[in-house]
Specification:
EC 4.2.1.75; 4pyrrol_syn_uPrphyn_synt_sf; porphyrin biosynthesis; uroporphyrinogen-III synthase activity; alpha/beta; Uroporphyrinogen-III synthase; Rossmann fold
Length: about 280
């Protein structure tokens, strides 16, 4: 079997649940096994909550004694208080998980959610089943990128459409800049960030340096890999989950970059297979 590595962005999780890249890594690994490709995982990134997470919970919280929320609200026909934000925008599975924790802590107020793609939407599946009347998954763009989402998000006839955007501190400004340019009022909250893990397993690192294809699910993990390989003259293939990570790879100086046109697991796996095929052809020369 050929070997390639998946970097997961969640070496630590306070709730002992798989983080975004752990889930994606295991899904990718399982799919590649069906193609006869073995894989190992090298955790590079950990998530950390930021003070804006408390602010998010406060914005969503309904005071049980007064029946009022911590900001202006409207009451639905079900009697449930709902946020005055016209949209909650979620652009990554990890941001979705963090949002759901705050949303549940706030008493599950009624919200309308727009997500960047199917991977992010899947984080909401369980919550939607139990709280469908309060969690309206109302929008996803034609292409799973922040720029396209900002271009396509509907105003629903509201000239001053308001958006709450909880995100990673390291997320780009594409969402708020694109939406603000269209007249939306955007409140961005940096609810979490990523940082390198405290320890990288040296045995796994040496194995990773020798494999023909490394797969990466985020720019954050890619930056850590770039730092680890800076003095190694490493020049093997990088298979990225989508265009954003691939763009980061190019900026970091990687040359053999593969990525799908649209972000997602199937395209990611196809990129890995393509990179391996090219590697095998080069080896035959």
């Amino acid at each position: 079997m050929d070997h390639r590595f998946v970097f997961d962005e969640g070496a630590e999780s306070c709730c002992n649940q798989r983080t975004r890249e752990e889930r994606q890594a295991h899904q990718c690994s399982a799919t590649l096994v069906r193609h006869g490709i073995d894989s190992l995982e090298l955790p590079l990134i950990q998530h950390m909550h930021l003070p804006d997470l408390d602010r998010l919970t406060s914005l969503l919280t309904v005071d049980c004694k007064s029946g009022r929320s911590c900001y202006n609200e409207a009451e639905t026909v079900t009697g449930k208080l709902e946020a005055t934000f016209d949209w909650i925008i979620i652009t990554s599975p990890e941001a979705g998980k963090v949002f759901l924790d705050a949303w549940k802590a706030a008493g599950t107020p009624s919200v309308r959610v727009g997500v960047v793609g199917s991977g992010t939407a899947s984080i909401f599946d369980e919550a939607v089943q139990s709280s469908k009347q309060y969690l309206d998954m109302a929008f996803a763009p034609s292409k799973a990128t922040g720029k396209v989402l900002a271009l396509e998000l509907p105003k629903n006839g509201n000239d001053k459409c308001t958006v709450l955007y909880p995100a990673s501190a390291k997320a780009s400004t594409d969402i708020e800049e694109g939406l603000s340019g269209r007249g939306f009022e955007v409140t961005r909250l940096n609810t979490y960030t990523t940082a390198p893990v405290n320890h990288v397993d040296q045995y796994l690192l040496e194995l990773a340096l020798s494999v023909p294809v490394v797969t990466v699910a985020s720019p954050s993990a890619l930056r850590v890999w770039a730092n680890l390989t800076a003095s190694r003259q490493w020049d093997n293939a990088v298979a990225c989950i989508g265009e954003t990570t691939a763009s980061a790879a190019k900026k970091l100086g990687f040359r053999n970059i593969y990525h799908p046109t649209s972000p997602g697991l199937e395209g990611w796996v196809s990129s890995v297979l393509e990179a391996l095929e090219v590697h095998e052809q080069v080896q035959k020369v």
